Amino acid sequence: MTEHTTEQAAAAPKHTALHAEHEKLGASFTDFGGWDMPLKYGSELAEHRAVREAAGIFDLSHMGEVWVSGADAAKFLNTALVGNFAVTAVGKAKYSLIVNADGGIVDDLIVYRIADERFLVVPNAGNAPTVARLLAERAAGFDVEVRDASAETGLIAVQGPNSEAIVRAVVADDAQRAAVADLAYYAWTAVTVDGLDVLLARTGYTGEDGFELYIPAERSPELWQTLIAAGSAHGLVPCGLAARDSLRLEAGMPLYGNELGVDTTPFDANLGGVVSFKKEEDFVGRSALQAAKAAGASSVLVGLKGLGRRAGRGGYPVFTPASELTDEAPREIGVITSGQPSPTLGYPIALARLDARYAEVGTTVEVDLRGKRESFEVVALPFYKRGA
């Protein structure tokens, strides 16, 4: 899951409760979704490598948190979102999408089932007000309460191969340490850290094992400090948005505003599997998405591996390769949505939206790198997979 913005704040960027902690650590800041967030603390390459090799800690408190409670909670979410939440067990989470009537993606999000009649919906930072508003509007006629708790909620992520050891070191007792070890991917449990109740989820956006910790915003600094102290023996370093972006790109995870937007349907973004047509509810966008599925996507999201040393960036056009066998000039067939050199793999990688006729793995295309064409190969996603 990711957190770009569609609605930029008109006022000065907001601060999370951890802003002072980031300043103490010498962070460089950037405006992101209306929030003043750490871009990096030192070397973004070192932060990236720490997550791949040890552990990194991220402030995600700019993300949204919307509670949905009531007798109709599951039925309502089945109408408001594209997934089927009636079959989601308590203690589990599901990646999903909220779309408009035309099937365009308004946001991608994670939904946790907290109890039979209670869910936590986590939208992206800049989209959180829009998602909260749409959920409230779509709740009309259902026995549910929709409450936007974004402003009062803090969120800290610990990601990397040593993340479990760090989280186990800070929870209250042996039973909770066992619960952390047993926690499945895309699941959550309740733990206690220094007397603080924490909703602990085994989710993330880096391609590594990792955890996300939901707490009251005002208690975020003490939890941050506790995790930093516990992580010192495990190679934990604070990480900013730059490393988060390079990590998610290697893992082939889409970013709202780059790969996803209201101009794309789930089928354009290889997310058709997230849409449930088996559920009985007539969810918003259902008819449009059924038509889109039947028609087939004319362009799809693919992974590109650079065959040279230069990287493609978002917005760079993609062309058919020049042919020595015909006089046909190269044609533009797509655009890069995200791209940069891969710190882990050692070559340029990119996500691109291509004409579906050129999306087969092994196809060679050319990217216009500011006036010079370089060859890229369509490859399977993700670029990087833990343990592979």
Automatic annotation (TrEMBL):
- Please list the residue ranges annotated as the Aminomethyltransferase C-terminal domain: 301-385
Q: What is its EC number?
A: 2.1.2.10
What molecular function does GO assign, one term? Answer: aminomethyltransferase activity
Catalyzed reactions per annotation: N(6)-[(R)-S(8)-aminomethyldihydrolipoyl]-L-lysyl-[protein] + (6S)-5,6,7,8-tetrahydrofolate = N(6)-[(R)-dihydrolipoyl]-L-lysyl-[protein] + (6R)-5,10-methylene-5,6,7,8-tetrahydrofolate + NH4(+)
Q: Which UniProt keywords apply?
A: Aminotransferase, Transferase
Q: Which residues form the GCVT N-terminal domain?
A: 18-279
InterPro entries documented for this protein: GcvT (IPR006223), GcvT/YgfZ/DmdA (IPR028896), GcvT/YgfZ_C (IPR029043), GcvT_bac (IPR022903), GcvT_C (IPR013977), GCVT_N (IPR006222), TrmE/GcvT-like (IPR027266)
EC top class named in words:
transferase
Q: What does this protein do?
A: The glycine cleavage system catalyzes the degradation of glycine.
The annotated subunit structure for this chain is:
The glycine cleavage system is composed of four proteins: P, T, L and H.
Q: Which family does it belong to?
A: Belongs to the GcvT family.
What is the recorded name of this protein?
Answer: Aminomethyltransferase
Taxonomic path: Bacteria, Bacillati, Actinomycetota, Actinomycetes, Micrococcales
**The gene coding this protein:** gcvT
